[in-house]
Amino acid sequence: MKLDVLTPSRVQDIDALPLRGIEGDTGGRLRIGALERMSDVAAHPGVHPVITRALLQSASQQLRNMASIGGNLLQRTRCGYFRDVTSPCNRREPGSGCPAVTGANRLHAVLGTSDSCVATHASDLAVALVALDARVRLIGRDGERTVALADLYRTPGSTPEIETDLRPGELITEVLVPPPGDGARSTYVKVRDRQSYEFALCSAAVAVQVRDGHLTDARIAVGGVATVPWRLPSVEAALRGAPATADAFEAAAATAADGARPLSGNGFKVPLVRRTIVRALLEVTQEDRT
Length: 290
Prior knowledge:
five-stranded antiparallel beta sheet
């Protein structure tokens, strides 16, 4: 709004709505209210490490103290062309074109792109939650529904202006995170141009279970390289039953960029996504290798 990208006739303050709370239920599922502040969720002892680390590597401390969980999940793209109202942008003005395809695209996506849009998804938190199979509860004119967070986001296709599956009048009311399995561990690794207050060139959210030096389960999502938080089922399948070794991790990560469409300025993201996944896996299984 400050940049005149959006000029709504009305802005509704929802801060007084009862959409708060961080608590576990009897089945071990974690519930996070959509209006909880990012910093409060990061500091809560019952939150998965991958969520905490994703939050602490997001924005600045001042923003984390004010920004809500629901707001973070629904933030708009950071693409410079989208935010420059003098440039064409299919997300802002459908049919006007996507200058990033042939223009300045170092920060843009290589996965989930289309000829209409190559902008990356901005949220670190969303990547962590998608890796954990989190769901969001929505309420609107037609009542309440619960959907997988991964299904809330839409790849651009030919309609990049439609970014989510939210219906008119719907709000996110809470995030529901499944309980971790026995011995579960998780981490979030973010690679960026500077150490703080910077969006990801590539990130990896990893949640694993390890037994007797082997991975019995693995869930992986990546950010900074795709138009939505990008789950990697092929890498997960290759890791299940594999030894917790660097060689096994590199072999599993080999398919991470399958289907990538690098642009003139961001081909480096193809090897980077593989290396970031390996780094995260080594970090989360380190005690098994010592």
